[in-house]
Amino acid sequence: MAKLASFGILAAMAFATTIGSTNAADRLLAEPLDESTKALLATMTPQSKCQILVDAMRDNKEAVIRWGSVLIEMSVMSGSNIFRNEFGQTEIKELHRRSFSGCAKHPDDTISSQAHASFQAIAEEIHKPGYHDGPELDDVSVPANVQAAAEKLRSILPDAPVVSEARITKKAKDGAKPGREITFTIKPHKGGTTRVREDYTNFTMDRELMGLVQLKSRDNTRGYTGPSGDQRITTTTAVALDASTWTAGASFSFEIETSGGVGARGGAWKTSCRIGQPIDASIVHPSLMGRAWPLECETSDSKDRGFYIEELRYYLRTHGESKYGTADDQIERLDITR
Question: Please, are residues 328 and 177 in contact by the beta-carbon 8 Å criterion?
């Protein structure tokens, strides 16, 4: 029985399906299967006994194991927003592993009952404080060459007292179209970096920045189509910085290369900015203190403008243009802890 349970774990990991049981079934039945296997698959439902999967694990019948994975998902999908919105790839694989293992231990149970038991246990775990999938930002180091470039940028950035934390809720409006609200929690760190959490209502992003340069980020998207494990982290691997001074009328540019993220694909982006004459930050918003530096920046496919807020150590965009349209960002709420 232990051998069967072990194989069930491997099978669940190897034959994890995609959401959409009907499509998975169509693909499976379109494969060249022997008549006895086709007949068995046609009779299998979530209410089938686990013994079918136990036999399939023993005899290494991949088609039956794969269909069992589909039935496990079917058992918990109906009417469950938790499965669709909060179960990522890691949780789905764990659902398969526990369900196959449970069936190996309790062959007289139904596939559905083992799937539901596993689902409930995992759902409770992911809602406990401290649960996380994959490394956190603090678990990932910035490469030495990137750190050196970040320190160079830090040496020219305005040095001013910073807040403990700021929460800014903005709404991007494209003409008459109502925009969605995004909340930014901004925390300047002693080392010169700034940690930002972007809350898009249905998911969040964590970023670590030096000025305008992103050093690393974590995508906290939940759900089956979201990233999992190491895929959540994107790390800047190279920074080409062209900047010598931070004064009105000066320009600077930086090109970054990244690695990681979904599909472990990186990329390269170049941004060029021109610095304007500083103004009182209270002009941007009454709750802000100190100075704000107007910036106009552009990449190969976008343009934006905004203000580098000294006490936030953060670039606050107010207008953006790209192939997706034009948007003006309006501050709806701003709360500061000093």
Answer: no
d(CA 137, CA 222): 17
Per DSSP, the three-state class of 18 is: coil
Strand spans (E) along the chain: 165-173, 181-188, 194-199, 204-210, 213-219, 233-242, 251-260, 267-275, 279-280, 291-298, 302-309, 314-322, 325-337
Q: Output the DSSP codes for 85-128.
A: HH--HHHHHHHHHHHHHHHHH-TTSBHHHHHHHHHHHHHHHHTS
| pLDDT, tens only, 272-317 | 999 999 999 999 999 999 999 999 999 989 999 999 999 999 999 9
CB 336 within 8 A of CB 166: yes
Measure the CA–CA gap between 318 and 304, rounded to whole angstroms: 8
Round to whole Å and give the CA distance between 117 and 97. Answer: 12
The tokens of 16 are what?
Answer: 């994890």
In terms of Cα–Cα distance, which of 158, 167, 267, 257 is closest to 215? 257
> Helix crossing, 111-126 with 62-77: angle to 10°?
60
Q: How far apart are the first and last CA of the chain?
A: 61
Three-state DSSP state, 329 = strand
Q: Can you tell me the distance from the alpha carbon of 72 to that of 150, in angstroms, rounded to the nearest whole number?
A: 48
What sign for the dihedral angle of Cα 272, 278, 282, 283?
negative
d(CA 1, CA 105): 7
Distance CA 320, CA 305 (A): 7
Phi, psi of 197, rounded to the nearest 5 degrees: -110, 125
Distance CA 59, CA 53 (A): 10
CA angle 299, 304, 308 (to 5 degrees): 105
Tracing tokens 């540019």 back to the chain, one arrives at 253
* Predicted confidence band of residue 238 (pLDDT cuts 50, 70, 90): very high
